[in-house]
Amino acid sequence: MPKQSPNRAERRNPEAGVPSVADHPAMQLLPRPLFVITASFENHRRGQLVPYVQLASTSPPCVSVAMPKGQPISPLIRDSKAFGLCQIPDSDEFLERKFARAHLTGFDEQDEDQFDSIETDPGETGSPLIRRALLWLDCRVSMHLDLDTDFELYIGEVVASSLKLKDAEPLIRIGPHG
Q1: Checking CA distances to 166, which of 19, 40, 86, 91 falls within 20 to 30 Å?
Q2: Contact 142, 155 (CB under 8 A)
Q3: What pTM was computed for the model?
């Protein structure tokens, strides 16, 4: 009899015996460039670190972004149908700290603008783009996938881009996922 595929609840529960990245050491060596994903809708702007960004196609130019489900930025991406990606230079600890815990804070009318102390420009899509980023990509959502895991996937068509710091090193992580 063929082995039954685990249901969604079992896949999300590591104690249910479902494999994870920790069970596949080779996956620890996949590079993870660190980006701040940004979005804006009406008078609200948000940003947060997102470690899973990949080129998805070259014609038209598209990127894929995977992030945990239920993030406070998700409704802004959904409603604006757009997002920005700003890659953090390896030397910029401020941006990494600024957006590292953004996914833990909720969203309400009283929230302070995360970008108050950071110079940004609005992209063609309206997403805030961080001026001091190594590079930025301004994207329109072409697809959103609710994966049968604890992550969701956005595919964005790049409508504008800029390489700001040609000599800077990007922040790319290789090692344990966390």
Answers
A1: 40
A2: yes
A3: 0.78
The CA angle 59-61-67, to the nearest 5 degrees, is: 135
Q: How many CB atoms lie within 10 A of CB 94?
A: 12
pLDDT tens digits, residue range 74-88?
999 999 999 999 988
Give rounded-to-5 percent helix, strand, coil for the chain: 20, 40, 40
Domain spans in the chain, listed from the N-terminal domain onward: 27-105+113-173
Write out the two tokens for 10: 């079992």
- CATH code for residues 27-105+113-173: 2.30.110.10
Q: What is the pLDDT of residues 99-137, one digit of tens each?
A: 887 655 555 444 677 888 899 999 999 999 999 998 999
For 71, residues 6+ apart whose C-beta sits below 8 A from its C-beta are 48, 103
Are 32 and 172 a contacting pair, CB within 8 Å? yes
